[in-house]
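chain below, 158 aa
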Amino acid sequence: MHLGLVLAVAIGLGAIAGLRSMTAPAVIVWAARFGWIAWHGSWLGFFGSTWALYLFTVLGVAEVIVDKLPSTPNRTMPGSLVVRALSGGLCGAAICSSADQSIALGAILGAVASIGGAFAGYEARHRLTAQFPGAAMGIALVEDAIAVGGGFLIVSLL
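prediction:
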């Protein structure tokens, strides 16, 4: 598999983790279930397990619900950024591992892209909801669709 494509997918999934931190790993476990991704003896092969499928699916769905609550902290707060960077880094590492590429490079690119995705997503949603205050829920749902659909589109490139 071409290194540039693998790194682009790692970056793309990192950006998805910036939008929804648990959506990116959920996409990876489902891609593994569909047979799009396989690990060759890597410790990251847990992404292909049934328990990971259930865990990340539940976490992803819960995050989509919790994101709509008024008490949910801003995604650009330090704690939220750390979670997103860890998720993006783990996903980048998993993608690179599945293609027998550098796990460290994938982790770094995924983590950095998640921070960028978090700030880009925040700005886009903030500006749209400021312009269309009555459409805040609709805008959040569109962001969910972009995260899930974009994640699957990105990983399908492998």
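The two ends are 8 Å apart (CA to CA). The mean pLDDT is 95.
thats it, cya
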